[in-house]
C-alpha cells in the first residue's frame, strides 16, 4: 500500500467503491466478479484498461416524470454502485430544490462498473431533466454521449417532451433504444405505447424493453442491452488530446471549479498543460477523475472515450466555458462541435435585498450561472434597488428554480422585477439609429424602450407550439389559445383518444400560466412543447405607472396593447393597498403614452394628522414617527410621496 499515492479520504472512498464493486450478490448477471475490478479499485481507479470498446456513454431522456431518475437508481443498484433500497430515492437528484420539488433540474453524470461476459464495462450514465425549461441540460448531456435510452411511461404514452428529446437525439446522430416504463401500473397500456413508439419514431417493437424502474422488473435485461446494443465511443487514445467541456460546477469545499469533460481524443493526466479553444487561456490539470455516487473519485488519467472531470488551476469562474474544447498546450487541434444553446425566453431584473450586499450577490449569481448554462446575464441598475443583474431564462420554471437555488445554495435573498420577454422595435431618424447603433432594437428591459415618437413598428417573439391533448379537451384548449392570440396551424388525431394541435402563439402569452391552465383543463393529461419561431409585427406598448404624475420606473412593463388595461388595473389596485395615506392626496395612474388606462386615489390625512388618527394619543404618534424615521432609508420618494420599498416589492411579486 505504501506506494499508493492517495489520501485517506480517497482510500476510504475507493475501498467503499471496492466493496460496492465486489459485492457479488448485487450483480444479477455476473457469476464471478472479475479480479481485475478488485485490483483496480484498490489502486484507485486505473482507467487505462477501460479501452473504448469497454465503455458505454449514454443518457436517459424522457418526458417529465416518466421515471428517468428512478431507472438511474435501479441501474446503480444492479451494478453495486449503491446499496439496494426499497425507498424511492432518486439519488442523482442531489440539489435541495430537486428533492423538494421531485423534479430533475440538473443533468447528473455517474459512472458504474458492470461485469458482463467475463469483461468489466465502464458505463457512464447521464440522467437528464424532463421539463422543457431545462432542455439545455439535455442538449449538453447528449453532446457527451454516443447513445440515449428513451423512456416512455406505459400509462401516459408518448408526450410532447418525448418527441422533443427524441428529435434532439436524432439531430446528434445517436443510437436510441426505447424502453417502456411503469409496466407495473394498472393503467399501463403497453401495446398501445409500443404502437406509438413504432409509428412515431420508427423503432422496432421487438427491440423495445418493457420495464418497471420502480420494482426493478427487466432492469437487468436492460443493462445487458446497454452493452450489447449501444455503440462504444469510436475515439483514439493515440490522437492529439481533445476534451469537450459539457458542464462545470463551482465547489466551495475546494474553492475551485470541477469541469465535466468527455475525452474524445488522447489522454489527460494531472500535470498536463492544457489550453482552451474559446478563450486561448492555458491551465495546469491538477486532478482527473470520474463521478461515482455519492462523490467524485480521482483517477490516474482519463483516456479517449471516457467521461469524467478535471480540476485545473483556473483563477476565475469565467475561465470555464461550457461547450469549449481543451487541448494540450502548443499542439493545436480542430475544436469539437459544440451544442446549440437555446435562446433565453423570459427576462427579469435581479437585485440584492440590500445594495451593500451587491458583491456577494454578484459572486453567487456568477457561480450559479456556471452550473446553469441556460441563463444569460447583463449588469443593470434601477432607481429603487440600485445595482443588479438582468437575467434571461428558458422559461418561468427555470427562473423560479434559479431564484430558489440562489436562496438555498447561496443564502441570497433577492428582489426580482416582473418577468417579461424581449420585444423588438424599429426606429426612425438617422441620428436615433446612430445613437442606438442599429435600426432594429431587441429590448427586454422596459427602462431601455425608446421614446414612442421614434418607434416605427414593434414586433414580438412568436413560438410554434405543439399541444397534445385528450381529444375531448381540444375545444376548450382552442378557446384558451384564441384568448391568448394563438393561430391554429394544424390539428390531427394521434390515435383514437388524443389530438395534436399545432399553434403559432405569442411567447408572452405562454410564459406565465399557460402550462398550468393546460394541465388544469386536461386533468394533467395535456402536454405542451414549443420552439422559437422568430419575431412578428405586433402592437407592443410601454405601460407606465405614475404617482402624482411622476413615473415609478421600476414598475414599467412592456406588453401587448390588448393586455395593458388589465395589468394597469391590477397594479394600481395593488399599489393603493400598499401605500399609506399621507399629507397630500395621492393619484396612482397606469398610462400608455398620455392615455390613462387605470387610476386609483388615496385621499390625504385631515389637517391635524396626530389628533385625527390617534385621538390625542401622542405616545403612539411619536412611536409611529420614530418608526417612520427608522424606515426612511427603505422609502422611495416619488413626487414628494413616501412610497415604501416593500410596496414596490409587493407589486413586483404578483404574477402578470
Ligand atoms: N408505478 C411506477 N412508478 C414509477 C416507476 N418509475 C418511476 N415511477 C414514479 O414516477 C415518478 C417520477 O419518477 P422520476 O424518476 O422522478 O421521473 P423523472 O423522469 O426522473 O422526472 P423528471 O426528471 O422530473 O422529469 C416517481 O413518483 C416515481 O416513483 C415505475 O416503474 N412504476
From TrEMBL:
Domain Tr-type G residue range list: 53-234
Membrane protein topology class: Peripheral membrane protein
Reactions listed under catalytic activity: GTP + H2O = GDP + phosphate + H(+)
Domain of life assignment: Eukaryota
EC number(s) recorded for this UniProt protein: 3.6.5.n1
GO biological process, one term: positive regulation of translation
Ligand binding (GTP): 62-69, 127-131, 181-184
Subcellular location: Mitochondrion inner membrane
CDD domains tied to this protein: LepA (cd01890), lepA_C (cd03709)
Keyword presence, Nucleus: no
Main subcellular location: mitochondrion
Keyword Cell inner membrane assigned: no
Keywords (A to Z) from UniProt: GTP-binding, Hydrolase, Membrane, Mitochondrion, Mitochondrion inner membrane, Nucleotide-binding, Protein biosynthesis
A single cellular component GO annotation: mitochondrial inner membrane
Gene Ontology terms for molecular function: GTP binding; GTPase activity; mitochondrial ribosome binding
Entries under InterPro entries matching the protein: EF-4, EFG_III/V, EFG_V-like, G_TR_CS, LepA_C_sf, LepA_CTD, LepA_IV, P-loop_NTPase
Similarity field: Belongs to the TRAFAC class translation factor GTPase superfamily. Classic translation factor GTPase family. LepA subfamily.
HAMAP family assigned: LepA (MF_00071)
Known function: Promotes mitochondrial protein synthesis. May act as a fidelity factor of the translation reaction, by catalyzing a one-codon backward translocation of tRNAs on improperly translocated ribosomes. Binds to mitochondrial ribosomes in a GTP-dependent manner.
Name the record gives this protein: Translation factor GUF1 homolog, mitochondrial
